[in-house]
Amino acid sequence: MKEKELLDIIKNFDIRGDIKELNSINNGIINTTYVVKTDDKGNINKYLLQKINTSIFTEPFKLMKNIENVTKYISLNDSESKDTINVIKAKNGLPLYVTSDPFSHKEYYRVYNYIDNTISYNKSEKTEIVYNTGKAFGHFCKVLRDFPINDLEETIKDFHDTKKRYDKLIETYKLNPVNRNNRAFKQISEIISREEECSVLVNLLEDNKIPYRVTHNDTKVNNVLMDSLTKEPVAVIDLDTVMKGSGLYDYGDGVRSAASNALEDETNLDNVYINMDMFKAYTDGYLSEMAPYLNEEEILNMANSIKIITLELAIRFLDDYLSGDTYFKTNYVDHNLDRCKNQLKLVNDIDEKLEEMNSYIKESYNKYIGHSKVKKA
Ligand code: GN1
Ligand code: MG
């Protein structure tokens, strides 16, 4: 989008000072983000301007309601908080500014405060960063444990219902809309052989064996802002997918992304495996916050959840590939297929390490709870 148009949009928000700089930044593969710098009589302020991807987030006002409620709750209830993201309202009092063209095509923009002197990492460089990522998301879940969960809107229906994701993939495969099935025969067969695993977490929730919690639903290393100097976690960002779900979605997805030795689209599969030091660091960070609040069934399914969420991503990438790449941004034709292969390699690696992971989770849990409470599986 042209700078002039963006500047016209920013002017509709309640921000302080004259706009001095506007830079686009690359974060995530869904929304488009810019950093806005203003000068308020010599004081430099920074803001984040984001255009919401409405093909994914179809109800932006519901999404903003979740974000406003959760960020307000955190600022009121988190005594350890160093900084939080806040929604800066548009001058008309709404959390979004909506533009419309002559064809009634609407675009939705929002502004947050920019948290300065922080850094976010795209890759797990050190165990310290991964520990702090687990700690940040564990802390997020802990602080929000008494949040009125039913006030949350379901902004993307069945987001982590792995079984429904599976069923949808099978539907796409049957339709073969862009004639790509023959390229993915091996991957689809592998996923079909794991059908039963897709229902495990949803069934635990439905049978009330694990509780509903506020979940972030995108617990990647780069969604935690860390202090540039101390590397301590400062704030959790990207709250678009905050919804009601299982804490295991967040833990599983966190380890999936932080402890993989390679990026999600690495094509040399020899490099794709769980780095156990990173797994341990994430688990320690998470349990250092959440150990006292988890129930036994949650603890017993932590390792399993890593595998299930990774399988879910393989399913989502393959579904998108077979549908003609309509959801995730891709840079080349087989990008989504490569991501699927990558995630399936990780699933197999997790299977091999499951026992080792389970025993470490018990060890770590006992360390943070202070006494032995977990029964042998
Ligand atoms: C998407 O755009 P980003 O990176 O924040 C996706 C996540 C996936 C992730 C995989 C709303 O997140 O669920 O885990 O890609 N977000 C949505 O890279 O679908
Ligand atoms: Mg995201």
Blueprint of the fold:
Layout: H1 3-10, E1 18-25, E2 32-40, E3 43-51, H2 60-77, E4 87-88, E5 97-100, E6 106-113, E7 118-119, H3 127-143, H4 162-175, H5 185-192, H6 200-206, E8 213-215, E9 224-227, E10 233-236, E11 243-245, H7 247-258, H8 276-290, H9 296-300, H10 302-323, H11 335-369
Helix pairs in contact: 3-7, 3-8, 4-10, 7-8, 7-10, 8-11, 10-11
The structure holds 2-acetamido-2-deoxy-1-O-phosphono-alpha-D-glucopyranose and magnesium ion.
Task: Characterise this structure.
Helix content is 43%, strand content 15%. It is an alpha+beta fold and 377 residues long. The protein is globular, with a radius of gyration of 21 Å. Residues 372-377 have low confidence and may be disordered. The protein binds 2-acetamido-2-deoxy-1-O-phosphono-alpha-D-glucopyranose and magnesium ion. Residues 28, 30, 218, 238, 240 line the site of magnesium ion.
* Backbone shape: globular
Percent helix:
40-55%
Instruction: Report mean pLDDT, rounded to a whole number.
Output: 93
Q: What about the largest sheet? A: 6 strands, antiparallel
Strand content: 5-15%
Q: Which compounds are bound in this model?
A: 2-acetamido-2-deoxy-1-O-phosphono-alpha-D-glucopyranose, magnesium ion
Computed Rg: 21 Å
Order of helices and strands: HEEEHEEEEHHHHEEEEHHHHH
Distance between the termini: 55 Å
- Low-confidence runs (pLDDT<50, min 5 residues)? 372-377
Say how many strands there are.
Answer: 11
What would you call the structural class?
A: alpha+beta
- Please give the count of helices: 11
